[in-house]
Amino acid sequence: MVPVPSGREQLDEAVRRLRNGEPIGFPTETVYGLGALAFDAGTVRLVFQMKGRPAGNPLIVHVSDEAMARRVTSNWPESAHRLASAFWPGPLSIVAPKVSGLPAEVTAGGETVCVRCPAHPVALALIEALDAPIAGPSANRSGHVSPTTPEHVRAEFPGLFVLDGGPCRIGIESTVVRVGADRVEVLRRGAVTPGQIESVLGRTVEVAHHSEGGGGALPSPGLLDRHYAPRTPTLLVEPVDLARVAEEAVTSVVLAQEPVETSSKSVGAWIRMPRDAEGYAASLYDALRRADGMKMQRIVVARPSGSGDAALWAAIEDRLRRASAPDRS
Ligand code: TXA
Ligand code: MG
């Protein structure tokens, strides 16, 4: 029996609501999702409306195992099987051809579907109880910071039923990988690293670089420049520049791994960030949300560094770059 920290009653309630065509908040090890039954097109449309998500940005389908992944895909290549065996349950989303019966809403009209099996006991118990896949983006308004606690989800969507699974262990979104016959491409960085994927598949993995101005169709439409962004203007600076930036007459909350060496009145608050990559990832979105809540003129983030997991630092850097990209909306 899978342990259910949130209790059997909450789980039954979540199942009932989803079967009734209601979106719910649900936990995963990365971030919280805003879930609907993947084969319930009407509720999937509602999820897009609630988020204000562009209709062209497809959702991830959450499954309890590889057998369920095969129910939403028309072709599950050997490479997908090897990746699923190595990393599921876990923070790896695999793009493969969709099965024809899967509503077009889920894949934004595209021919592929992004599938993952989350490593969270509550999510797994939920999907198993439903015996059906859950389509779900991160449970935040489009472009805003992803939620890593039930409180974050409720702040985004007041009144939403949220299945409580505690704070998310990893804290940044899953790695998205597309496995094609000729190339394997990481479309979004996450806790599963390109190097780990390479060693499982025994072949070279490319890492996509996305930019709104880059021209051509985006291979993963969600990866626009500005994303994961607080409402407060956010600036990413080198640690050596922090003292100088802090002197500027703009009231700031600073996120840094070391104390800020300044007597500047402009620094209204500072949030100390962990030195290790795992700790930094796990606390990043909560820190950005707390900083946003202080309603200062800006958030200043000192570019983090640390020993150890270089690829996880690259994923963190990717999120910080998008959080601090200029708002062109
Ligand atoms: O960790 C996660 O992945 C979380 C939890 C809830 O599972 N979900 C998540 O979903 O981050 P969302 O919708 O915020 O991001 C999904 C990303 C988007 O960048 C989207 O464009 C991409 O996956 N994606 C989805 N389907 C795709 C497809 N068929 N081809 C390429 N990219 C796809
Ligand atoms: Mg998202």
Describe the structure.
With 329 residues, the chain is of the alpha/beta class. 31% of the residues lie in helices and 17% in strands. It has a nine-stranded mixed sheet with strand order 1-2-6-3-5-4-7-8-9, with helices on both faces. A hairpin with a 4-residue loop joins β7 (175-179) and β8 (184-188). The radius of gyration is 20 Å and the shape is globular. Bound molecules: threonylcarbamoyladenylate and magnesium ion. Threonylcarbamoyladenylate binds next to β4, β5 and β8. Magnesium ion binds next to loops.
What gap, in angstroms, lies between the N and C termini? 47 Å
The main β sheet shows up as: 9 strands, mixed
Oligomer classification:
single chain
Query: What portion of the residues fall into strands of 2 or more residues?
Result: 15-25%
What's the arrangement of secondary structure elements?
Layout lengths: L7 H12 L4 E3 L6 E5 L3 H11 L8 E3 L3 H7 L5 H10 L4 E6 L14 E5 L4 H10 L3 E2 L14 H7 L18 E5 L4 E5 L5 H8 L3 E3 L26 E4 L4 H6 L4 E5 L10 E6 L4 H17 L4 E5 L7 H14 L6
Parallel strand pairs: 3-5, 4-7, 8-9, 10-13, 11-12, 11-13
Antiparallel strand pairs: 1-2, 2-6, 3-6, 4-5, 7-8
The chain binds threonylcarbamoyladenylate and magnesium ion.
